[in-house]
Amino acid sequence: MKKLFLGLVLLYSSMFAGTINIAVAANVSYAIEELIKEFNKTNPDTKIQVTLGSSGKLVAQIKNGAPFNIFMSANMDFPQALYDESIAITKPVIYAEGALAMFSSKELDFSKGIDLIKDSSILKIAIANPKTAPYGTAAIEVMKNAGLEEFIKDKLVYAESISQVVTYATTATDIGFIAKSSLYDDKLSKYKENINWVSLDTKLYKSIEQGIVIINNAKDNSEVKAFYDFILSAKAKEIFINYGYIVK
User: How many Cβ atoms from other residues are within 10 Å of residue 100's Cβ?
Assistant: First the structure.
């Protein structure tokens, strides 16, 4: 009888376990797998479908009716816009702050820091499109605040997302301004700090505060709420820190 009862409980649970769809800024692509794995330890029946992209493009899809339940943005402005338009049912909350790094697959003199941009050998610089990707906006801020505008004329190559910047920087450009979280991808583990990359001074760009919201189609969805709460939990913060994010 006890086994029968347990079987009925498991069947009942599986009937109501479902898939939640989350739209995730490309910079989180390196951490999201571990985040989901940790979440599923306590929520094994919840399947999570991830769509990655630039925050601007993802928010446009959401406004056009894409069936996402949660939006994890690379800034606070895009989720705030969804909340202001009553598309999101929760106010944007910061889940992590991103950090920017300058990267090259070539061995360069990164001891120069951002001034490396001045070198005549730097002919192409990859950044994410600042119109749709907050990390692209931050890259422009860095170069302007460092007084390097005259050195970047006709050199910028725009990528659709911060993850595409990594591709460009390893194949087609001399340098790329990437999310520091990208460096935790196994494919980039062979590249070394101060030889292939360097962290950029956070004083050169505004804090990249990354925000999360629940979309209104997920109202009263307990599984969506559980994942949302997990992303803001202490355990998730540990994972974000391990992937180069700043968490307060």
Answer: 24
Q: Coil, helix or strand for 69?
A: coil
What integer is the mean pLDDT of 213-217? 97
Q: Residue 57 domain-assigned?
A: yes
Query: 82: pLDDT confidence band, cut at 50, 70 and 90?
Result: very high
Residue 29 and residue 41 in one domain = yes
CATH code for the domain in which residue 153 is found: 3.40.190.10
- 41: Cβ–Cβ under 8 A, 6 or more apart, which residues? none
Tens-place pLDDT, residues 135-149: 999 999 999 999 999
Q: How many folded domains does the chain comprise?
A: 2
Q: Is 178 exposed, middle or buried (0-12, 13-18, 19+ CB in 10 A)?
A: buried
Judge whether 157 lies within some domain: yes
Give strand pairing partners of 19. Answer: 47
Q: How far apart are CA 193 and CA 8, in angstroms?
A: 55
Rounded distance between C-alpha atoms, residue 14 and residue 80, angstroms: 34
pTM: 0.86
